[in-house]
Amino acid sequence: MKKIGLCIVYNHRNYGSMLQALATVKSIQKLGFELEIIRYKKNLSFIFKVIPKLFTYDFLKGKYKRLQKKISLLFYGKIKQNNKIRNEYFKAFCENKFGNHLSPICNGYKKLCESSLNYSAILSGSDQLWLPSGLSTNFYNLMFVPKDIPKISYASSFGVSKIPLHQRKRTAEFLSRIEYISVREIAGQKIIKELAGKNIPLVCDPTLLLTKEEWKQEIPKKEFFDKPYILAYLLGPNRKHRIAVNELKEKTKLPIIALRHLDQYVAGDENFGDFAPYNVGPEEFINLIRFAEFICTDSFHGTVFSCLHNKQFLTFDRYSSKEAASRNSRIDSLLKTFCLEGRRFNGNIMEIQKEIDWKLTEEKINELRHSSFKFLKGALK
Q: Do domains 3-210+366-380 and 220-365 have the same CATH topology?
C-alpha cells in the first residue's frame, strides 16, 4: 500500500509549527496509515515565480523582521550565542520526531511533480500555509499533484481574513482542485465559500487532536522551576503588553519567565523577565506551560496549549485589527469556538485570575476533536 504524502511545516524553528507537525503525524498514524513528509528544494527557476510576491505587504514585513534579527545577531554576541543554543534544541527535536518520516529531497518543481506519483493521497496540513505571500510556490496548495491523486487539506489557514483582489482568481483555482478541504478558522470558511462556492468544515488545529494525556505520553512531564511563575510568550514587540505582565508580577509577587527574541529581535526584552532560558525546544516549551501559574501570550499555539492544560491565561492581540496583514482571525475563531472570548486581554491584566469553566471548554474541544477525526478519517480512506 502506498503511503500518505504530507506537505507540512516540520522544520521551522517555531514551537507551534513543530508541535502541530508532530500532532499531524501522530494523528494519521493513529488512524492506521503510513506516511512520509515530502521535502521540496526550490531551484533557480523558482525566482521568476516569486517576483510578484516581493511586493506584498506580508512578505516584505516578514523579510524585515528576519533581517532585523540577523543584524542583531551580528552586533550582539550574547544574543547570537543564546539563539544558537535554542536552535540546537529545535534541531534535536526535529531529528528525533521526524527523522524516520522524511522523503528523499525533491530538487526542483519537476521532481516534486514526479514524486507525487509515489503516494496514494497527499495532505497539506495546518499552519498558515495559504498566506497570500506564499501563493506562488504551488506546494502547500497542492498544485503540483495530478488530478487523479486525492488531495486533502487539514486545518489549513490563510492567516488573513481577506484575500488580495489580484490573487482571488488563482486562490479559487487551487481551492477547486482539492477534493477534501477543512480549515481551522471561521474566516477561512468564508473565504472558500466566496471564492470556490464550497461549504467546508471547521476542524481543530492538529495540536488539539491529541488529548492532554496523549501529549504527556509523547512529551513526558519535566519541571523546569521549583516555584510558581508567570510565563510570558510574546512574539510581537508591543511594549504595553510587557508593562501589563510586569503589573501582574507586582500584584502576584511571582517571577516572570520570558521567552525572548523568537520571531524577531525585540530590544526591550533584554530587560524583560526575571528568567530568560534559551535551552527551550518544543518539549521544554510544553513543560513550561504545564507548570506555569499564569500564561500571557500573543501566540495562537500558546493559547491552544494553555487551553489543553487548563491554565489561567490571557491572549494579547499581536496585530492591530486595522493592519493589512492582521492574523488575529485564527485566535478570534479559537476563543469563540471554545467559549473563551473573555480571555482576550482588554487592558485589565488581573482578569487573568477569573475562573474559567473548563468543563464547558473541554466539552467543546472534545466535540470538535471528534468531528475533526471523522473528517480526517473519511478523507484518508
A: yes
C-alpha cell at 157: 489557514
**3-210+366-380 is classed in which CATH architecture?**
3-Layer(aba) Sandwich (3.40)
* d(C-alpha 139, C-alpha 135), whole Å: 9
Q: CA 169 to CA 95: how far, in whole Å?
A: 39
Contact 294, 248 (CB under 8 A): yes
Residue 180, C-alpha cell as written in the block: 477534501
Helices (H), strands (E): how many in the chain?
13, 10
* 367-379 confidence digits (pLDDT tens): 999 999 999 999 9
CATH architecture, range 220-365: 3-Layer(aba) Sandwich (3.40)
In Å, the largest CA–CA distance within the chain is 61
Q: Give Cα 72 to chain centroid, integer Å.
A: 25
Sheet of strand 119-125, all strands in order from the earlier edge strand to the far edge: 102-107, 35-41, 3-7, 119-125, 151-156, 180-183
The enclosing H or E element of 7 equals: strand 3-7
Q: What is the pLDDT averaged over residues 40-47?
A: 73
Domain residue ranges in the chain: 3-210+366-380, 220-365
Say if residue 159's pLDDT is above 80: no
Q: Residue 322 pLDDT > 80, yes or no?
A: no
Task: Measure CA 49 to chain center.
Answer: 25
